[in-house]
Amino acid sequence: MDNLKDCIDINSLENLNTHLSYQNNSENSFYISKIPDLCKEKLCILGIDEAGRGPVLGPMVYGIAFCPLEESEILKTFECADSKALTEEKRDDIFSKLCSSTEIVGWAVDVISPNYISNSMLSRTKHSLNAVSTDSAVGLIRAVANAGVNIDHIYVDTLGSKPEKYQSFLLNLFPNYKITVAKKADSTYPIVSAASICAKVTRDHALQVWKFQEGIELTHKDFGSGYPGDPNTKKFLKNYCNPIFGFPQIVRFSWSTATNVLEQEAYDVEWENTEEDHKDSESPNNVSIKSFFKMVEKPAKKKRTQHQFFSQMCLSRTTEF
Predict the structure, then answer these.
(1) CA 55, CA 69: separation in Å to the nearest integer?
(2) CA atoms of 243 and 273, how far apart (whole Å)
(3) Any known ligand binding at 50?
(4) Which one of 1.10.10.460, 1.20.1540.10, 3.20.20.30, 3.40.50.720 gives the CATH number of domain 220-265?
(5) Hey, what CATH class is 8-208 in?
(6) What phi and psi values does residue 311 have, to the nearest 5 degrees?
(7) At CA 238, angle to CA 233 and CA 244, rounded to 5?
(8) What pLDDT does residue 161 have?
(9) Percent of the chain scoring above 90 in pLDDT
(10) Are 181 and 158 in contact (CB under 8 A)?
(11) Is 237 within 8 Å of 257 (Cβ atoms)?
């Protein structure tokens, strides 16, 4: 994602929907608007926020928005605000305005698949959700920087409970930029609000056009918002839990909500030859490969017998060489 070679340019909500509907939902995807020439010439502010961190269903989306500092008042005219405080219709309307303002505003989103999240968090070498989030935010910054955006100041909605720690981390990575990390940044800085709207709209529409690779015929209304407390989401998890294979790929297996359903609905599995049982499985009948490499003791040197001539002549050795 550090370069935009394989990224998809988006110029409208309809265009975004089209690409989302054909996307392989088991893989991550990256979408970006046209980079305004003005953003390459003028000093720019840049905002970062995410959508879909908490749900048990669907992707998590990180969004980034940028515009020249001297043109940032346009965001207020769009009524950019915290995406969670806006209606779906209002978010779509603002997103369309951002797409049509190609001479001033740019944006990009990183769509992180539920399959990727599950694999990261459940792999032998754990990669936490915070680590996945950090990788995405850093990748977005590098991508637009490599595309020529003249970044001056970056505003980020905090990750975790200590904004100063995250801010220090980003400053070490990007010492040439001013960076502000704050709680509720999406409510404080319009540029972060714009990023939040891009992320939220992308996630919502990714769910609306989601195609189940498992052949399930459902609409987004059938599985709900994806949040653990949603009754439709709870019903979906229970009804579409295969007792052997688990859930469709829209589900984040690493969530405790999914784990609890699996414990109730799925078959128990007993695994043989686990690491814990390795020592117990060793028995006298099991020959270790190490036995083929044991050191073999060399036989002691035999003492040379003296020729009978010397004994008959009563001769003995007086000096040993």
Answers:
(1) 34
(2) 23
(3) yes
(4) 1.10.10.460
(5) alpha beta
(6) -75, -35
(7) 130
(8) 81
(9) 66
(10) yes
(11) yes
Q: Which of 135, 145, 85, 75 is nearest to 110 (CA)?
A: 135
**Does residue 298 surpass a pLDDT of 70?**
no
Is 268 labelled a binding residue? no
Select the highest-mean-pLDDT range: 19-23, 91-95, 217-221, 275-279: 91-95
Residues pairing with 157 in the sheet: 182
Instruction: Find out whether 277 is annotated in a ligand binding site.
Output: no
Rounded CA separation 82/219 (Å): 27
Nearest one of 239, 275, 252, 211 to 24, comparing CA atoms = 211
- Give 58-69 pLDDT, tens digit per residue: 999 999 999 999
pLDDT of residue 96 exceeding 70: yes
Q: Three-state secondary structure along the chain? A: CCCCCCCEECCCHHHHHHHHHHCCCCCCEEEECCCCHHHHHCCEEEEEEEECCCCCECCEEEEEEEEEHHHCCHHHHCCCCCHHHCCHHHHHHHHHHHHHCCCCCEEEEEEECHHHHHHHHHCCCCCCHHHHHHHHHHHHHHHHHHCCCCEEEEEEECCCCCHHHHHHHHHHHCCCCEEEEECCHHHHCHHHHHHHHHHHHHHHHHHHCCCCCCCCCCCHHHHCCCCCCCHHHHHHHHHCCECCCECCCCECCCCHHHHHHHHHHCCCCCCCCCCCCHHHHCCCCCCCHHHHHCCCCCCCCCCCCCCHHHHHCCCCCCCCC
Q: Which amino acid, 83?
A: S
Query: Quick count: other Cβ atoms within 10 Å of Cβ 175?
Result: 8
The alpha-carbon radius of gyration of the chain (Å, integer) is 32
Q: Which residue has the tokens 């209606």?
A: 87
Determine contact, residues 128/254, Cβ cutoff 8 Å. no
Q: Domain residue spans in the chain? A: 8-208, 220-265
